[in-house]
Design a protein that fits this description.
Elements lengths: L7 H8 L4 E6 L5 H14 L8 E4 L3 H17 L8 E6 L5 E8 L5 E5 L15 E5 L7 H8 L8 E6 L7 H10 L6 E5 L1 H6 L2 H9 L5 H15 L3 H6 L12 H6 L10 E5 L2 H5 L2 H21 L6 E7 L7 E8 L5 E10 L3 H14 L3 E7 L4 H12 L4 E4 L3 H16 L3 E2 L4 H8 L2 E3 L2 E3 L14 H14 L11 H8 L6
Parallel strand pairs: 1-7, 1-8, 2-5, 2-6, 6-7, 9-12, 10-13, 12-15, 13-14
Antiparallel strand pairs: 3-4, 4-5, 10-11, 11-12, 16-17
């Protein structure tokens, strides 16, 4: 059992001093209870160290519960408070509003009222907080936040907490915009399993006088999920309901493809059975010739003044290995300058191609490589050669998909990313689906030929991650295509 007053996820939230912070959370994990403690400490602090706290939720019962928790914490912290109760306050339009009010000896107040955005107008002195609880269920969240953000002008803070209420709710849209980088807000996420790992059920046992055991916790979890069915994903695991369908609309993808005469090329090499049966030196010589005749002219056309990154989705035989070459323009526009695909090519020759590309890229900054399964060895070898600061070895998890795809989608929506014009690129991006609320390529082939699995979309996602990477200052030597061949001449020996 933990002796800490708050569980770890409550501590992380309380310690986060971001002006605007969001928390997508499981039901009943103690978020509001912990926030009440922070609100009391803030309102009880004298002078500029504290401030007023304005609490808003979607119904009166929840608001009253928060005020009761604040009163209990005030007693526990021995914070001097006045008479707590409901009061009438004048709104900026002259109408009266009912407010739960907790006054402190510091001169600050905790005030809780209904979720009408007008109630926040004229609020917001230096140091004040606005807390929006169960934000996904607030009637006009967009209007509420529009009013709440005024407190940040004078150094105030806005705290937004909620479970989900559908994938098209303003709360989920805000979460996706934060993940996409559109807003510089802090984002927390705590589902049931993370809360349990950080002591939720142990704390429940402490409070209720039960004896904790791992078996009892597992049974409690199973029973809870059964009670919440069919809504357990949304209520307990931070997965908004109604998720499903194509994540990237066809019209959006096509709008990011230039005319054919201005598009970067899609270049492919397919290894035949005869090619794969040859000895490695013979394969290396054939690939060296292909690189010289097909790839080097593409590399020679890259802008030597611009930074370049790469993303690689690895496959050995069933799917396509896709390598996206991405240019970062002077305006930070991201352009696919080439897409290189390999089908049924042995590991050593995939390494040969990848290392040739990276060595020849002008101002090569970073690459993100698929390090799952068979791709792990190539990613590790590439990181050893080109530097671990520049090479990200990515093992895909739901968290990576959840965080990375909104940023990638934002670049398409904002028209700050240009793709290669090709039907396979279109279909790969169309293959990305919302699976239990998380954008990813589902299991199984995604093309009629049975050779693809959204490969170029994943390569583009990885290239976008490489472009976002902070690699630090680099001393860059541009080798060019000829220099790259010299560096890699050992492959064709």
């Amino acid at each position: 059992m933990t002796d800490a007053l708050f569980l770890t996820y409550q501590q992380r939230w309380a310690a986060d001093t971001a002006q605007v912070k969001l928390w997508e959370k499981s039901r009943r994990i103690g978020a509001s209870y912990g926030e009440a403690a922070s609100a009391v400490l803030h309102a009880a602090a004298a002078g500029k160290l504290g401030g007023d706290v304005y609490y808003i939720s979607y119904n009166k019962d929840m608001t009253a519960s928060f005020v009761r928790d604040c009163g209990a914490w005030a007693g526990a912290f021995q914070a001097a408070i006045g008479a707590t109760g409901e009061r009438l306050l004048a709104r900026d339009d002259g109408r009266d509003i009912h407010v739960f009010d907790v006054p402190f000896a510091s001169g600050h107040h905790i005030q809780a009222f209904s979720n009408n955005p007008r109630n926040l107008r004229s609020k917001g002195r230096p140091g004040d907080w606005v807390v929006v609880d169960e934000a996904a269920f607030v009637d006009d969240l967009e209007g509420m936040l529009k009013a709440a953000m005024a407190v940040t002008m004078w150094g105030g803070h806005v705290h937004i907490m909620s479970t989900h209420n559908g994938d098209d709710s303003p709360f989920n849209n805000l979460i996706q915009d934060v993940r996409a980088g559109r807003y510089p807000y802090s984002l927390h996420r705590t589902d049931l399993d993370q809360a349990l790992a950080e002591g939720l059920y142990q704390r429940i046992c402490q409070v209720t006088g039960q004896l904790w055991s791992a078996a009892a916790e597992a049974q409690w979890r199973a029973d809870l999920i059964r009670r919440y069915r069919p809504n357990e994903d949304e209520e307990l695991f931070c997965i908004p309901a109604m998720g499903g369908g194509a994540y990237l609309p066809r019209t959006l993808i096509e709008s990011c493809m230039p005319p054919a005469d201005r598009s970067g090329p899609l270049v492919r090499y397919a290894g035949t059975a005869a090619f794969n049966d040859r000895a490695e030196p013979a394969r290396a010589r054939e690939i060296a010739d292909w690189l010289r005749d097909t790839i080097d002219p593409v590399l020679a056309g890259l802008d030597p003044a611009r930074r370049h990154v790469a993303g690689m989705d690895f496959a050995r035989s069933g799917d396509m290995t896709a390598i996206c070459i991405l240019e970062i323009g002077a305006t930070l526009h991201r352009t696919w300058r080439a897409l290189v695909e390999l089908h049924n090519v042995p590991f050593s020759q995939q390494r040969q191609v990848l290392h040739h590309l990276l060595a020849a890229l002008p101002h090569f900054t970073a690459a993100a490589l698929d390090a799952g399964g068979n791709g792990a060895q190539l990613a590790e070898e590439t990181a050893e050669r080109f530097g671990k600061l520049r090479i990200q070895e990515v093992k895909f998890t739901e968290a990576i998909y959840r965080d990375a795809f909104p940023r990638y989608k934002a670049g398409l929506e904002d028209r700050t990313t240009t793709l290669v014009r090709h039907d396979d690129v279109m279909e790969d991006h169309r293959a990305v689906q919302l699976v239990r609320g998380i954008p990813k390529v589902p299991e199984g082939k995604t093309d009629a030929r049975g050779q693809r699995h959204g490969d170029s979309a994943i390569a583009g996602l990885l290239a976008n991650m490489a472009a976002d990477a902070d690699t630090g200052p680099l001393t860059i030597v541009t080798a060019g295509a000829r220099g790259a061949r010299d560096l890699l001449r050992g492959y064709a020996a």
